Fold this protein.
Amino acid sequence: MNTRMLFFTWILLVSAFAKAEVSPQEAPQTLKGTVVSERQEPLPYVNVIVNTTDGTLVKAAITNEQGAFIIADLSPNTYTLVLSFVGYTTVEKSITITTETLTLPPIQMQFATETLEEVTVVAERPIIQVEPDKTIFNVAGTVSSAGNNGIELLRKAPGVRLDNNNNVIVEGKTGVLIYIDGRQSFLQGDDLTAYLQSLQADTIDSIEIITQPSARFDAAGNAGIINIRLKREKGLGTRGSISSTVTVGDYLRTNNSVSLTSRLKKWNLYGTYSNYIGRSTGFIDLFRIQGDKIFDAQNDSEYDGFSNNFRFGADHYLSKRSTVGAVLTTNINDSESRSNSRTPIIDRNTGTIDSILRAPNSSESNTVNIGMNLNYRYQDTTGTVFSADVDYGHYTRDRLNNQPNFYVTSSGEILNESITNQDTPITIDIYAAKADYEQRLGNGSFETGLKVSQVRTDNTFDFFDVINGMDVLNLNRSNQFLYDEKIYAAYAKYNAGAGNWKFQGGFRVESTDSQGDLTADSENDNQSVSRTYTDLFPSAGLTYQANRNNSFALNYSRRIQRPNYQDLNPFEYQLDELSFRRGNPFLQPQYTNNVKLSHTYKYTLTTSVSYSYVSDFFAQVTEAVGESRNFLSTRNVADQEVYNFSISYPYKVNSWWNTYANVYGSYSKYTATNPAFISTSQETVGFYAQSTFTLPKDYKLEVSGWYSSPSIWGGTYEIKSLGSLNLAVQKTWKQWTGKITVNDVLYTIPWEGITQFGNLFIDGRGGGDTRNVNFYIQYTFGNNDVKNARKRDGSLEDEKGRIGQAP
């Protein structure tokens, strides 16, 4: 497809829509609506006022016991609708009356804290909010969240699971994109885990689980998007907080954070610093059968990490309608790891030990991740919105691996040895820009936008043989891989409503052009990897409000999961003496079609069923090479079908007892498209539940836990059941909060599983020091009413999440 012609045609279409107008009529019309609380309960006796755009009163009314209001005899025009109620934040929104009765979607009012004649009205947000397009996990509503980090919070999020490698699974599918304040994370693998570990829970406001993203979002992510919203403060003035968590596991480790927000009349300035310092442990045992050999590997590891996060932002209010802003984020992560591996190599026929491989490996890694965003937003009273973002991301990582390997007899006599070092620096630059436009059209709103991005990566693998204590570069096992990818995208989306029905539909076009070049002394058949392809991604949603207690939603979307850049590199990397990793230049993207039907009762009890079909599903597989070695590579191995059922229910038993439960069941079926892959299927059930008890003297107690029955990880490992029980007690006084948490009380998080690919079979198990105790303290200071900073959704979205983990 001619990309320039595509965008030229698109601009003409946008221009045509932008000029569309609705001819006003003079006949008076009626405005209808419903007002609900954050708990999605109807709010009676709310003041409803219709003003002209300059503030002149036109009509006034109040809501009935069902939270509904009707205002008749309004002339076609644009008005400002104002809703106010004691204990809630006042809501103002622009509405346009045309030639027909206007029925607004339910208007949600946020709880507020106000002092009235020495009486303080304090309301808490619900732990879980279910909206048509997403589920919101309000972190601030849970006692056990305080003192946790980002990884631990994801485990608590409804419908979310983390596997043994901290990969996120939603509705039975992997391929979830992680966003921070609407902008996709730069990191993946160990670097993403380190970043999330350094995020304190008290800096996180909520976690949004978006399983059916609309056309506005990038099409990447088979299972949708998880968006971590960081906290913003309210009102004019300055406010900040300081917190610290000490975790006692096998070793001590700590998370610390400080945040500050200052809101002036024309400016909003904010900044956050957080870190993670400490040591953790892990183990992984792999019993491998390959041909006539058995390899019984047992590996214990220690990880030292020091991760620092800086985030600074500024918004300048040019006028009531226009705002410009800038955000700078920096993550610096230094880590060291040490592992001691012992692998007896056994003759399968006789059961005798031929030799034992001892590998006391170590590695050092230094990562710097910088992101910059410039943005502009315009919104007027007619519903017209224009926004633009320009982003730049720079990522560097230098990792040095030391791999001594000693083959010894059962008595410890050295048979032979091989000592190597690998230096694997990576540099990635990302450029992105996007623009979005929205306006009212007919009985709904039309939205469209464009995006362009470019990714440049430089991956170097220098392999050294250590001879007589000296590093000697092995040119036959060293290489450099350069990758350049450009993605052009455009989308259109329309929302409309009629009576109790609402509809949204749209499509997104993405054109990808990529080039990868391998430089190496050794011959390789795949020195160059070039691809160009264009895809269409439709999405649609239909909701029906049967009555005030029952609503239904039906959603469809098509998604894509592109390979990580590192997975395309055709060269071979040594992980240890017996294990290697090599990329697959022929790896194809996988595509997912999702359909989801959900029902919500009284805005709290939500039941959903979904079906997904994934074509060209790719997984990391282990292949046997010769008698003793194996290769890790990513292959398109199967077509996957996922059926998922879930129920979520937040419930207030009484004034001192709140509960939440999420129960799910899924059935995954993998139909092999690769002859070495074994077709398989698995039923999985699980739940997350918590109860919070309010005790005298500002104490709270929380009991929470999760469970997952046997499941399939990555399409290859059949994993046994996992779970965790957690206990927490919290005390608040004045501006202080303290908490003690015991995690994984029964030590049930460690995993066990088996896999087979071709003639190679592995029985594995692994885990870490997940059973630990957290001690948390927080102090807040400054003005208690600082206004919300804008949440920025930058243009570095899909590009950031595909930076694969190099060896």
Q: What stands out?
A: The longest helix spans residues 3-18.
